[in-house]
Amino acid sequence: MPSPGSPAEGSSNVMRSISKLVRRYSHVNWALSDQALVSCANFANGILLARYLGITEFGLFTLAWLVLEFSLNLQGTMMTTPMLSIGAKKSGVDAQRYFGAVIASHLALSAMTSAALFLGVLIYDALFHGNQYSSLALPLSVAAWAANVQYFLRRYAFVRGMPFVAFISDFCRYSIQLGTLIWLFETTEMDSEGVLLVIGCAAIFALVPGSYLLWPVKFDRKELSEMARRHWHFSKWLVPSTLLNWGVGNLFIVAAGAMLGAAAVGSMKAAQNIVGISHILMLGLENVAPISAARRYHASGGPALSRYLVRFTVLGGSAMALIIGLASIAPDFLLRVIYGSEFEGQGYLVRWWCFIYFFVFLAVPPRIGLRTLEHTRPIFLQNLYLSALSLAIFYPMITNFEIIGVMVGLSVIQVLRFGILTLSYRKRLAAIGEDGTIKR
Prior knowledge:
The protein has two domains: 25-233, no CATH class; 236-440, no CATH class. Helices cover 83% and strands 0% of the residues. The protein has helices spanning 7-24, 26-53, 55-86, 92-128, 137-159, 163-187, 192-205, 221-235, 238-260, 262-275, 279-300, 302-329, 331-339, 347-362, 364-372, 377-430. The longest helix has 54 residues, at 377-430. The chain is globular and about 55 Å long. The model is unreliable at 10-25 (pLDDT under 50).
């Protein structure tokens, strides 16, 4: 037996400390691992589709995917985002009843969203394109339903403290999706409809590993009504904010395609995909940060919440700076190696996206803070202001400065978003008294 204070005892203490630290932050490790898996798979998926579909068919798929992402974001705002903050405060029977209400509501809403997309594509295509793209309706609706349910299940696994289940679900989805796409691209002539069906089927198979998490829950009509009321209070500003945010995020890109052509959009998307590796960090932390923030605020109030968000900003911001710093060193080399020589010379766009993404990250902590305080009106208002600004400046910016105008416009939007959200969070926190009531 080593004597007290001996090197052997000191080494043992260090190992116990490391082991304790690993267990304490295992949920963060799984969250980052899961997001690394998703981001890398999406990165590979983008390269695969662009190379095999061709620019025209890839553009059609991209437009369809924008619609699917819109439905995913909107439904997530109504159900999943409130669940991360509200569900983290529930325990015991209350948790079973609450999650039972959320699960039932989400499944019903997913079915309605899928049906709405199916009819929407058919009606829009009949009115404006002479039924040229009606074959997209069914694959898009299937992919939307499956993606919505699988996305909910993986976030539900995080809030139930089982991030490993989310990782396994995503591993199943993307391994099946990428493997099947590669096989079909090599053996058949795939189009957008086929790609959407493959994505939908892979998402359905990915539900299997986490399906056991749906039990035990309790379905209670009274709890369903209470859940709907509280979710509405939580998301009544987030829903229109999501609509506006989708417009802000895509207006400049869509306008660039109309005014500058597909090549400009292809260059911007390729450059964005390089910096998009930072999604591993941002989205990985967003899987766990709202839950941790809600628990700290519930246990110790506003000061504890602010300390957590400051630590989140400093540590996460340092990691973000490292990622975008590496991407900025030799962007033309990265574009050439990943996409081919035709993208060489567009490295300056990668540096623009590095600047934009840094402010995208900085806006995450104050947004989490506002959601934790269940004060989401400022999130809606900043999106309203920024949408109006985007509408006012996109045409003159693109007309006069072309692709640089797009990047400047996107940069201005993100810097202003960070400033508005930070000021709104500080103002709200200052208005909360020690007893949790709002000061008049």
